[in-house]
Amino acid sequence: MESVKYMTAAEAVRLIRSGDSVYVQGSTSIPEVLVRAMTERAPELRGVKVYSAFAVGREDAPYARRELIDSFEAVSFFVANNLRRAIREGVAQTIPAFLGEIPSLFRNGRVPLDVCLLNVSEPDDEGYCSFGISADLAVSAVECSKIVIAQVNRYMPRTFGDPVIHVSKIAALVRGDEPLVELPTVTPNDIERRIGEYIAAEIPDGATMQIGVGGIPNAVLDALHDHKHLGLHTEAMTDGVVPLIEKGIIDNSRKKILPGKSVASLVLGSRRLYDYLDNNRDVEIRDVAWTNDPAIIRQNPRVMAINSAIEVDLTGQICADSIGETIFSGVGGQHDFMYGGALSEGGKCFIALPSMTGKGLSKIVPTLARGAGVVTTRFQAQYIVTEYGAAYLRNKNLAERARALIGISHPSVREELERAATERFGIGFLRTK
Predict the structure, then answer these.
(1) How is residue 362 annotated by DSSP?
(2) Per residue in 144-197, pLDDT tens?
(3) What is the bridge-based pairing of β-strands 208-211 and 303-308?
């Protein structure tokens, strides 16, 4: 292959024009060299709409500042750390959407894109770069953008699956060797470990796992070391699955979709995880429109969808994206996997949460807080799990659900919740004793 020609970041971002729509790659692989250079052009630009999704940055997005609102309009499909403050202050906006359906907004032109900013691996001998740990929306954004600008980064692992692009499709290549953001592995506390043990007890051998990020997911993974023939088909892959793969507990032998392969749409973790993925053919990183498609998810047997929540009301309504009126995250893939898992033969869907907040407030509540968003409806709720047990809600009437949820709430609030349930459901609740 002929030698690749590079330019500076300042030269590359001159391809962005006023009025353009720009997609910035997410996960822990934000092309920060390009983002900084774009932001420095603020005096020259007006009305540039900057889209992102689940994006974990080292700092707040530099373009999402009040003094730059004439230059950049920041819009996110999922509120992560780099835009949370800007959205809270009204400087940025969020679009509610199932993560698995966002690529269709690009592909059908509802959200037109002009430019895509990528963080990619070194080109191989044939000129192909990998944008390895973030297929999610990046695959469709590359496909639909008129211009692709890439930060070539020796720290980006080369993965197999969808996130691959040839240098001939890249309008501007910029050398930017910056280590990817790392998320420390969260060690579960005692409460999270108890929750993990309750969930693990419900997971059969041969199950296909979808699991999220944080202390409770890590506690579930820690409790699976006696299981056999598990599979992985998930939205986000984290460090916690690697020991299970290395020990052969996750061998993907019972999956129907890509058997023998661990499947994810994005990766969040440590350098150890990124090194594990580099040139690893046992893992495939795929377009989120495919990984999160319930029609794909349901084809695997015994799908175990494990997600979290901010609060749950006594009817089983699940808020997972906001604290009252304050948007904290997004729907992400929770709905996609809750629905696909419910349709899977032998599938189970779990919402896991501590019974209390760190401030001593109950997470199981009579009614959701004012302004709270319902991410998973009460019609979809199956298992709600706290450190006090697992409440199975499906096929239970509203009064029976209230009784089951009170049974896994913190003992200090049960009397209060019973009074609320009695007032709401009357004799129907009293009969559930």
Answers:
(1) B
(2) 999 999 999 999 999 999 999 999 999 999 999 999 999 888 888 999 999 999
(3) parallel
Instruction: Kindly compute the dihedral angle of the four CA atoms of residues 330, 30, 286, 204, in this order, to the nearest 10 degrees.
Output: -60
Q: 9-175 and 190-430: same fold?
A: yes
Local structure of 386: helix, strand or coil: strand
Residue-wise pLDDT tens digits, 332-359 = 889 999 999 999 999 999 999 999 999 9
pTM score, two decimals? 0.94
Domain edges within the chain: 9-175, 190-430
H-helix or E-strand containing 191? helix 190-202
Q: Report the topology of domain 9-175.
A: Glutaconate Coenzyme A-transferase (3.40.1080)
Query: Active site residue: 32, 73, 192, 235, which one?
Result: 235
Q: Is the sign of the CA dihedral 196, 202, 208, 212 positive or negative?
A: negative
Provide long-range contacts, Cβ within 8 A and 24+ apart, for 252-256: 253/229, 254/206, 254/207, 254/208, 254/229, 254/301, 254/302, 255/208, 255/231, 255/300, 255/301, 256/299, 256/300, 256/301
Phi and psi at residue 171, to the nearest 5°: -75, -30
CATH superfamily of 190-430: Acetyl-CoA hydrolase/transferase C-terminal domain (3.40.1080.20)
Give me the residue label for tokens 């995880």.
273
* Residue 235 annotated to the active site: yes
> By C-alpha distance, which of 146, 23, 13, 143 is closest to 95?
23
